[in-house]
């Protein structure tokens, strides 16, 4: 397990309302303290006003040319620079995949790839901009660390922790403001899940802002019916917290995974693979089905259409518990469908 403590962190983190805003503020903070930290942009908008205006010598805009962006990042990283690459998750994981694989991962270079608009958060921009497969792609690359935060406060801790990790890192961010999950300045350890709620009936493992929120909302609804769900924020997809998953399999009836990603190869796949090898248990995956989402709607509306919502998590937990005589399932009483 890879563990990193925050370096030079202030007593209290900034509190922007989106993980993207939190990331940008933290990147600037890191770059002020360390001239090796560079911002490589792909015409994402805003970074030139926020970062370049203050630190022009540590900022390069490569334009909408993601393959070139990754190759340049690899080149400067080989000279001792710590580049943070800024692009959309769909483009980092698909359009520039060959460069990520060969130029960055193969050489284990310290390039931090920050993909925004992950999952279905690009919403109305449609399947061309949706990133349903990025976790599956990135976690399959040797040497790559893969992480996704639950809220802006965790984004701050994650970005700080990532800055000095060995090898490449992929950080998966959303687009719009999301509500806070944490109420304090919690510690952050790469590769170690965070237990957000204790429970002995079923375990819900979630990754990303909306999935974690859906998991917590589902746990509260289950608790109203007398079912206690443990909720784990699996912010690091690779390396995965094997010990936390084994404990969940041994102490609860099974595991539900929740993600803003395809059910194929992402968090659900990683959890199922791990438990199949270390401690076989029932796993139900809540994620985007094996289809593109071309229906209009907001981020949450599109996720619900594709099978990801609080109610989908509740039904998955019920599925895990069904067959256990000591648990009575009655969560639907008095609830809207």
UniProtKB/TrEMBL annotation:
Gene3D superfamilies: 3.40.50.920, 3.40.50.970. Residues 17-181 form the Transketolase-like pyrimidine-binding domain. It comes from the Bacteria. SUPFAM superfamilies: Thiamin diphosphate-binding fold (THDP-binding), TK C-terminal domain-like. It holds the Pfam family Transket_pyr. Coiled coil: none annotated. This is Transketolase.
């Amino acid at each position: 397990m890879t563990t990193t403590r925050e370096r030079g962190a202030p007593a209290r983190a900034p509190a922007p309302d989106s993980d993207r805003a939190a990331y940008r503020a933290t990147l600037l903070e890191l770059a002020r303290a360390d001239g090796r930290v560079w911002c490589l942009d792909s015409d994402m908008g805003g970074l030139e006003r926020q970062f370049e205006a203050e630190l022009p010598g540590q900022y390069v805009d490569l334009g909408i040319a993601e393959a070139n962006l990754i190759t340049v990042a690899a080149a400067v990283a080989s000279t001792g620079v710590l580049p943070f690459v800024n692009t959309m998750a769909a483009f980092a994981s698909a359009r520039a995949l060959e460069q990520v694989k060969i130029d960055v991962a193969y050489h284990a270079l310290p390039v931090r790839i920050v993909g925004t608009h992950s999952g279905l958060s690009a919403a109305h921009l449609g399947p061309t901009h949706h990133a349903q497969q990025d976790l599956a792609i990135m976690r399959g690359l040797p040497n790559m660390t893969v992480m996704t935060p639950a809220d802006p406060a965790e984004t701050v801790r994650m970005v700080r922790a990532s800055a000095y990790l060995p090898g490449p890192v992929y950080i998966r961010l959303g687009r719009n403001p999301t509500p806070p999950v944490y109420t304090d300045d919690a510690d952050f350890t790469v590769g170690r899940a965070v237990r957000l709620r204790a429970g002995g009936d079923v375990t819900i493992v979630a990754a990303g802002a909306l999935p974690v929120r859906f998991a917590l909302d589902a746990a509260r609804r289950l608790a109203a019916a007398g079912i206690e769900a443990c909720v784990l924020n699996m912010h690091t997809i690779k390396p995965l917290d094997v010990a936390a998953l084994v404990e969940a399999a041994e102490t609860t009836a099974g595991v539900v995974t929740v993600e803003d990603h395809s059910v194929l190869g992402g968090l659900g796949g990683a959890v199922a693979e791990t438990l199949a090898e270390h401690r076989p248990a029932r796993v139900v995956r809540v994620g985007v089905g094996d289809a593109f989402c071309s229906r209009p709607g907001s981020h949450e509306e599109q996720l619900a259409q594709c099978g990801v919502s609080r109610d989908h998590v509740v039904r998955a937990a019920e599925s895990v518990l069904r067959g256990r005589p000591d648990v009575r399932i009655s969560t639907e009483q008095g609830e809207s469908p």
